[in-house]
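[job 4471] stage=fold_predict status=RUNNING
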Amino acid sequence: MEKSSYFYQFLEPISKELALVARELEHSIFTSPRTMLTHARIFVENILQQVIREEKLPDEQWTNLKDRIDLLNQNGYLTTEIRDALHFVRQTGNQAAHDTRMFRYSEALLSWESVYQIVKWYVEVYGPVDINVPPYHDPTLKAQQPYEITEIEERLKSLENLLISSMEKPKVDSVITPEAEVAATKLEFEQPGFTTIRTITYKDQKLEIPYFLRDAFLLPQRFAISETFLIRLGAEQQARIMSELPNNLEGLHHHVKRYTEKNNENLFEELKTYIEEEKIRRQLVLNYPGELFFFFKEDYIVVTEELSKIPLTSDEFSGMPNLLRQLKEDQMGWVGQLPKELVILAKYENVGIGTIEKLFEQLKEKQEHHSG
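[job 4471] inference complete, writing structure tokens
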């Protein structure tokens, strides 16, 4: 994913963490005004903490944004305009954090303008002299919002934690710590849906779950070794979807009889493969919007209109009469009616993965023949 420009990119030489939090705030204005208002308050509070540090004022006793505004104002560091802008961001942020009413784009834009005044003051007073603050302009409403609001919330929390961490560590040669650089860059280049939403562990191993898989259905047929284990767990309302899995897989087998810790280990290893395959599939969908695909394990086929019209008959597909008969009974007579996840077809009686693989290979041959 190419690096995209954003309004507060000029902040990067001062604090990449601060710049990226501002970028996420900009993304959230037209996605969720409430999120923008709530996190703008946290954003300006971090700016004030850096100002207090620069001015060598005692900060330990000031526990919230209002206290920090009052501290700087009483010591003569704030103009009336900046003080009022800070209080506006604080007050609207407090409302957004507690009030259940719907917040308007216009409210988020007013807060965004106040944030600009605060950032401009901060850069001009405390930033490097060679940084020029561009004139203010309203963000534009994008035709498509790439991130869902829950994902934006997670991204903001991660970046805010990086920002807090960066302030706690003394910076000698660089304004960006190596750890923050790696983490921030990861967030910066992540495609929509790829933000880590949770982590699943097994013993000393960790597995990051991306946002787009947080409630994914764990189709047992996708897990060759753990298929029966998942079916048994599903019967006990365990592990049917990703969000049902515990944060630690150790002991998961206790929910069903006659399974051992080895089954938990196998499931964890297969989850790794499953997540990597799903990331590849997600990337395909993002890179080729509007295309239809058939998936089988790590491979795929683009479903053209010509391929979709091929009848599911023994004249077209050899060596699988049992599968074709059952598909016909379920009123699936054309390729285009097949499920995009082909391993689902293994649910049919006496149909194994070998048969599905044979179908996939014949579909691929037909696609290559027609495209050639």
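[job 4471] summary: The first strand starts at residue 196 and ends at 202.
[job 4471] exit 0
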